Amino acid sequence: MRTVVEGCMNPLSEHYNSSANTQDASCEFFGCMDTLYHTYNANANASDTSQCHMIGCTYDWAFNYDSEATMDSGECEPYVYGCTDEDAFNYNENANTDDGSCIDKIYGCMDSTLFNYNAYANTADDSCVEFIYGCIDPAAYNPDADANTDDGSCIPVISGCTDVSADNYVYPVGNPMVDINTSDSDACIFYGCTYVGMFNYDAQANTNDGSCYAKIFGCTDATADNFVPLTGNVHIDVNTDDGSCLYTPGCMVDTMFNHNPLADYDDESCETLQIRLSD
Predict the structure, then answer these.
(1) Which among 15, 34, 125, 270 would be 20 to 30 A from 94, CA to CA?
(2) Three-point CA angle 267, 270, 276, nearest 5°
C-alpha cells in the first residue's frame, strides 16, 4: 500500500515538496499580482507588494532617467550632445541631446580645381563643371556659347563696307582687331552723279561727287553736215542726239528749176526756170 505524502506539488511554489504525492493547501507562490507593474507575476497566487516594481533607469544623471522607476534596468545612458536633425549636414546618429549645433546642407561643387567650385558648399551634388576657355562676351564678334571662362580671345564687332567694288572698301590687313568683320551695306560709298535729269546720272551711285553735266542736244553723227566737232568740254559738247543731223544740201523749193527732193536742208542754191522765146 502506497504511503500518502501530503504537500505542495506545484514546482513553481516556494513551498514545493518534491516528495509529496498528494496535494494539500500548503502551496503558496508569492509575487506581484498587480498588472500595472513591470514585475507582475502571472504565476503568483499570493500577493507580495514588495515585489511590485517599475523597471527603468533610476539614476537622475542619466539621459533616460525614469522618475517612476523603482528598480534599475541597468540600461542608463549618459547625455551625448550633438546635432539630432537627420536632415542636417552634421547629423550625429550617436547624439541623444540636441545642442543647437546643426548646420544646414549647402549643395554645390566641392572640387576646387573646377570652374564652379563653391567654397561655401558642404555637400557635393555632382554639379561640377570643367573649365571651358573661349570668348564669353555675347556682344563680341566671336562669342563661344560653350565657354565659361574668358581667355582673352574676344574680337570686337567691326562694321563696315565689305563690297570690294565700293569706293571706300578697305582691304583687310590680317589683324582681327581692325579688319571689318560685319557687313554694313549702308556704309558702302559709291561716288557718281546722283541727279536723275543729268546726262551722266549713275543709278548705282549713292554719293554725289560733283561730276554731273547736263544733257546737250544736237547732232551727234560725225558724218552729218551740221555735226559740230567735240572740244573735249562736257559742258558744251553735244551728247544727246535730237534727230537734227543734216546730210543732203540742196534746193528744197519744189517750184524751182533745181529742186532736190532728197535734200534735207536748203543751201540757197535754188534757180528759177527761164524760158527763152526765139526771134
Answers:
(1) 125
(2) 160
